[in-house]
């Protein structure tokens, strides 16, 4: 690993007119550490499983951390670096929905265990990428192929995180543009927004949508009024509470969705609100799974009926193409709402695998080289 350059293996030049951060062709090194450190993947998986058993919210935290890492300078572990004399690092950007400290602690634990067995062999970037995949699989989501061979970056700037990361109130055009800068499509954007099917968000992030907007009682007019009342009950003004990005489905007593077919791990501790599912898209769409007249009237959906917790979630319904993609991931069409109950979590899981494999291969061709850090929070001296 020490003598292998990730860039020399996978280099793909910048395309004219596109900001840095582009997707490489499929990475060939699925079993990169087979000889160098055969225990690496097992250590990552076992540590992630133990962490989720202790705190089920760890899964969403790891996925969020991986997403933030890849979206700035590519998947190079730059999100893991602490601030230095050169200025605040990405983790100090203060962007809404910043990764939680618990995720950093899990990566530190994995890195320590791996370094004990295979010093300076497995990069922090690879550890984070593997951990995010294993976390989602452990929670009942799909598994995607993770190729190895990434190097850890030297640079981490908070201002870059603010520039590249889409905000929680981003409109549809901005979302598409931000993802396009990384070589990701409109469909990738909608599919990867499904990460909001798990985890929680601070009330402060959504407070303006509940109290300081142009709708009745200060509620954002794109937000379903009934759902707004539920959120207000959990988020009084000035609250430091956390709310689920996608609330549990109380109609089924909070039971977990059916896991991905052939899924290899099932946690007894899985709980509603922490399981990846297409429910996010059903919520965002604002539709009901009904037949007859109600279903027909729902076909003329307006954005104000959306139950997306974030404004950016609700904005997925603001264009014809976005609406069509949300319906697709929800598992129903405008013509047949009843199909929402068919093929549990499909095609969302199928599409998520494809988009995550693209996201996890993002790399900034303009970044200077890389290394295998001994400590994920700082570059080697």
Automatic annotation (TrEMBL):
It is an enzyme of class 1 (oxidoreductase). It is found in: Secreted. The keyword Membrane does not apply. Substrate binds at residue 166. The keyword Metal-binding applies. Its EC number is 1.11.1.7. Pfam families: peroxidase (PF00141). Residues 32-380 form the Plant heme peroxidase family profile domain. Binds 1 heme b (iron(II)-protoporphyrin IX) group per subunit. SUPFAM superfamilies: Heme-dependent peroxidases. Its cofactor is heme b; Ca(2+). Disulfide bonds join 37-118, 70-75, 124-376, 203-235. GO terms for cellular component: extracellular region. PROSITE patterns: PEROXIDASE_1, PEROXIDASE_4. Ca(2+) 2 binds at residue 249. This is Peroxidase. It comes from Riccia fluitans. The lineage of its organism: Eukaryota, Viridiplantae, Streptophyta, Embryophyta, Marchantiophyta.
């Amino acid at each position: 690993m020490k003598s292998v350059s990730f860039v020399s293996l996978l280099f793909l030049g910048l395309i004219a007119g596109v900001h840095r951060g582009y997707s490489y062709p499929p990475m060939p090194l699925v079993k990169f550490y087979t000889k160098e450190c055969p225990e690496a993947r097992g250590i990552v998986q076992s540590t992630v499983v133990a962490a989720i058993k202790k705190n089920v919210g760890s899964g969403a935290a790891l996925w969020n951390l991986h997403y933030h890492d890849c979206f700035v300078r590519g998947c190079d572990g730059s999100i893991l670096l602490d601030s230095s004399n050169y200025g605040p690092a990405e983790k100090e950007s203060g962007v809404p929905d910043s990764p939680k400290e618990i995720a950093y602690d899990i990566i530190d634990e994995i890195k320590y265990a791996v370094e004990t067995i295979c010093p300076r062999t497995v990069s922090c970037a690879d550890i984070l990428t593997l951990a995010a995949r294993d976390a989602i699989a452990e929670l009942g989501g799909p598994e995607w192929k993770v190729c190895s061979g990434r190097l850890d970056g030297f640079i981490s700037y908070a201002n870059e995180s603010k520039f590249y990361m889409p905000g929680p109130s981003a409109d549809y055009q901005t979302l598409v543009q931000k993802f396009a800068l990384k070589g990701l499509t409109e469909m990738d954007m909608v599919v990867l927004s499904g990460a909001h099917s798990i985890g929680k968000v601070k009330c402060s992030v959504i407070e303006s949508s509940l109290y300081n907007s142009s709708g009745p009682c200060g509620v954002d007019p794109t937000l379903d009024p009934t759902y707004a009342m539920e959120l207000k009950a959990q988020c009084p003004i000035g609250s430091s509470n956390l709310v689920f990005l996608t609330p549990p489905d109380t109609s089924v007593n909070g039971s977990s969705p059916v896991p991905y077919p052939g899924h290899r791990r099932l946690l007894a501790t899985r709980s509603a609100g922490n399981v990846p599912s297409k429910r996010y898209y059903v919520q965002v769409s604002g539709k009901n799974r009904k037949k007859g007249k109600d279903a027909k009237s729902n076909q003329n959906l307006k954005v104000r009926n959306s139950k997306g917790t974030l404004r950016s979630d609700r904005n997925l319904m603001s264009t014809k193409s976005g609406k069509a993609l949300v319906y697709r991931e929800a598992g129903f069409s405008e013509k047949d709402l009843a199909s929402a109950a068919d093929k549990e979590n499909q095609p969302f899981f199928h599409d998520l695998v494809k988009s995550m494999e693209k996201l996890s291969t993002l790399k900034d061709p303009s970044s200077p080289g890389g290394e295998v850090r001994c400590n994920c929070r700082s570059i080697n001296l």
